[in-house]
Amino acid sequence: MPLPSEPLRKLGFLTIGLFDGADPGPGHESTLEIIALGERLGFDSAWVRHRHLQYGISSPVAVLAAASQRTSRIELGTAVIPLGWENPLRLAEDLATVDILSGGRLNPGLSVGPPMHYDDVRQALYPRTAELEDFSYDRVERLLACVRGEPVTEFSGTEGIEVFSNRVQPHSPGLAGRLWYGGASLRSAQWAGEHGMNFLTSSVVRADEPADFAEIQRASIQAFRAHHPDGARARVSQGLVVIPTDSATPAQRAKYEQYVEKRTPRTTSPQGPARLLFARDILGTSAEIAGQLYAHAAFREIDEVAFALPFSFEHEDYVQILTDMATKLGPALGWQSR
């Protein structure tokens, strides 16, 4: 999107789906209500995060199965499912099932690498195979093969009264084209492009070079498209944290300002051994946010977004933010509601 005259094509949002560990039902219900609200507001997509052994959505596929029955149009995505926790064949069955139930609206986002805090969970997760598990890109390729309908066994046919298939069932033919890879480095961007996936880029990048977030992210987007069969037409979605305040109350604005201020120090330099660099949250009126986005080097490379909702706000805060995104910010970026 090099010029403000070129409209944003797809507007989406991402939520973590927090809940109270002592009473998880209301938090999950809030997530489903927010997704349904997104559809009513005209958003193109709703995405959920994935959290294990935390108080956020641990089973996004199950949550999106429920969301698919409360909505009819909005695309439903995961950002992202860490495959180190998953068996690719079993996950492919779940993804295909939800895609069928949703009428072909599922957009699974994936990543690889060892599970977070692997030394602490390996005995519970892989008690006999921890040393043998492969957390490389091969794990994604296994999932891709299953979703594409490639054979997973040499056995098929009829045995007694039961009929067996040699590929994952159900098979959803369009699902493979809606798989996304969530990457933060040039290497992952190039790999996703070479394997014909879509590319999710968020508010975190790996700062291998001098730490300018927007330039690092732009370089990843360009590397992805340079290695993708579709070239410049290859799909990229950007997921910055954006907080419009057009209709916010004074109390909400004060809360949002405190939230951004608390998170800002981590944006000034790369964090930890992995040199992860975080983007600053963008807070302000929709007009102010649009101006900052058009000045963002990576935003000018894309035409679809999944703006990330802040982690720890209340349900009514998300209603206000989503409403402003759909009615104020989206139009300021040239987007039109369906």
Helix content: 25-40%
Report the portion of residues in β strands: 15-25%
For the largest beta sheet, what order do the strands appear in spatially?
10-8-7-4-3-2-1-14
- Along the chain, the helix and strand elements come as EHEHEHEHHEEEHEEHEEHEEHEH
Mean pLDDT: 96
Largest sheet: 8 strands, parallel
Specify Rg, calculated over alpha carbons.
20 Å
Distance between the termini: 20 Å
How many helices? Answer: 10
What's the topology here?
Blueprint: E1 10-15, H1 25-41, E2 45-48, H2 60-68, E3 75-82, H3 88-102, E4 106-111, H4 118-125, H5 138-147, E5 157-159, E6 162-164, E7 180-182, H6 186-194, E8 198-201, E9 204-206, H7 213-226, E10 236-238, E11 242-244, H8 250-263, E12 276-278, E13 282-284, H9 286-294, E14 304-308, H10 315-332
Parallel strand pairs: 1-2, 1-14, 2-3, 3-4, 4-7, 7-8, 8-10, 11-13
Antiparallel strand pairs: 5-6, 9-12
Helix pairs in contact: 1-2, 1-10, 2-3, 3-5, 6-7, 9-10
